[in-house]
């Protein structure tokens, strides 16, 4: 077990800073993060920082096997599944079979880096919104340092708070969309609460979740709050009181409060982003997935969910895990792919209660089964990072119970 975690930290940092970068592979666009992650995993395995998690590897074999069998059956039956889409399953989810063999002190350093980075981007998130209210027009600052040809397309990076409004939702500059900065801030806030970080750090993280005007972070945070409320660490929740006061002030002094209220009830409107993310993927993809016995058994083929939605002129509709797997891989896919993922991720969440919201987000709110950033943060915190073995007493933070830790090593202490 190593006391240093250079590859783990590098994986975390690149997942934040590189998530908008991409390159062309034939007619498709691939994220830069994929080869970077594979390289860092290989280096970590070579140096001993990472090891193969045999239990997850067996489950991953079931997942890959189910996907491969369904794809082969579809080819035999005359279908044209996307081999690129199948390859993404093999590559993106390979990380699930790797675990970091690092000490509790090293885990704490990884957590500290994450909370520190997201505290910075919380300030950036607030600054993006504040600067627009001061009269500075929104600008994508990534274009100042990265050629447009190297940025991933088909993401709503610049998204107004309402149609035609000159004020844009914050995306933290380097995040794919406002929903992603909200997601990462929510995960950082959940971790900070669990570790009883300083109330000011928690306040900054929570306030930074307001300008993106997205619910992803709250989907991650709320389950963590509920778990804390029914645990011996419930006193940690006192740290959110100052942030709630600031968030209430922002809601009353800006249009964001009204917009959050509108978005909380917009899922019933088919023309809203909530509906195309939470409702339409299920109504559009699940019924055709059982239209005939063959499709019900092995699906329509990898990548065909996107083709189906394009044919229906529903290109804005997202492709979450459940309807996409059901449509493309049928019942066999639901049992092998989805079943394997639930067993693997559910087991990891049991040992890391603050990650419960990540699992909820992945299974239901996640925009795409093969969205690299979503897959990465889920696998990173639930599978790669080891469960915390440090002893703790009721009502106290486990970090404080380790006498070998200096104050400087404590997470946001």
What is the radius of gyration computed over CA atoms, rounded to a whole number of angstroms?
A: 21 Å
Query: What is the average per-residue confidence, as pLDDT, rounded to a whole number?
Result: 86
Q: Main sheet: which strands, in order across?
A: 1-2
The number of E-state strands comes to 4
User: Helical region count?
Assistant: 17
What percentage of the residues does DSSP assign to strands (E)? under 5%
| Category from helices, strands and their pairing | mainly alpha
Summarize the main sheet: 2 strands, antiparallel
Order of helices and strands: HEEHEHHEHHHHHHHHHHHHH
Distance between the termini: 24 Å
How much helix is in the residues?
Answer: 55-70%
* Residue runs with pLDDT of under 50 for 5 or more positions: 391-413
**What characteristic shape results from the CA principal axes?**
globular
Q: How would you explain this protein's 3D organization?
A:
This protein has 17 helices and four strands. The chain has helices at 6-17, 33-47, 54-76, 83-92, 104-133, 178-194, 199-208, 216-229, 241-253, 256-264, 273-278, 280-285, 293-298, 304-311, 321-351, 356-365, 372-384, and strands at residues 22-25, 28-31, 50-52, 98-100. The strands form two sheets. The protein has a two-stranded antiparallel sheet. Helix 15 packs parallel to helix 17 (372-384). The model is unreliable at 391-413 (pLDDT under 50).
